[in-house]
Amino acid sequence: MDNNVTLRKELGNFLKTRREKICPAQVGLPSNSRRRTPGLRREEVAMLAGVSVTWYTWLEQGRPIKVSDEVLQSIANALMLNAHEISYLFGLSQTTPSKNALFKEPTNTMFQNVLDSLLYSPSTMLDKYWNVIAWNKAASTIFIDFSKLDITDRNIIKLMFTNKEYQSRFTNWPEKAKEMLAVFRVSCTEILNDQWLKEFIAALQKESKYFNKWWPLHDVAAEHEIKKIIKHPLAGKLFFEHTVFLTPENNFKIYINTPTTSTKEKIKALLTMHVKKDIE
């Protein structure tokens, strides 16, 4: 069988199985007992993705039709695909996921529970692109409220070079920014061919004169920081021991900042203050 035919057939089967896994209520559609098959109907997926029913039907049937990245991403969103499924979908279509699709990785609740258990240790989880995909309350309180950022702005390198609030947390920003960039460059070896990286670098070179100046230097460094000092506008200087853990299955990194005794008391006070504001 022709390789393209095989890919199209597998693509159709993959879409069908993903469609059948979704309960209509999950996407805000009414569910009733008249449904003959499990999951969503083709016309419902088409509606959610903003494409015609005929076109989507042809895609599931494995017909030789052209599919743009934007449409694939819309279908991925409609089917609530995770990052691994998105990569597989784009692979079957012989194209590369758009950068927004790469931010769709849902966080395993186990990891989120681990972060939440670290009450007074500002902790985050990063993917291979240095996107912050999970964090705890302490991290939002000490560094920046990640929940208020656009999903594409939750990137540590982007924050370090373009976000003044995040930059203000570092007592010696130029030195820390250069160190972070050198570590980031080493981590880029596994994504050098990703279109995302090319677009990311090009955008930052336009947005930050410092990034544009330092990136061409090709400085590299290992992740070595053990002690970290953060400057908070209300609590003043905060002192932490910095630890990094690598998750074995998907190479996510969990960054834990363990506070000194005095810093822990300051964080307790800040968190209490935030709780009172939330109640008010």
TrEMBL record:
Matching InterPro entries: Cro/C1-type_HTH, Lambda_DNA-bd_dom_sf, MLTR_LBD
Gene3D superfamilies, alphabetized: 3.30.450.180, lambda repressor-like DNA-binding domains (1.10.260.40)
Annotated organism of origin: Pectinatus cerevisiiphilus
Pfam families on file: HTH_31, MLTR_LBD
CDD domains given in the database record: HTH_XRE
Residue ranges constituting the HTH cro/C1-type domain according to the UniProt record: 14-86
Molecular-function GO term, any one: DNA binding
Superkingdom field: Bacteria
Name of the protein described by the UniProt record: Helix-turn-helix protein
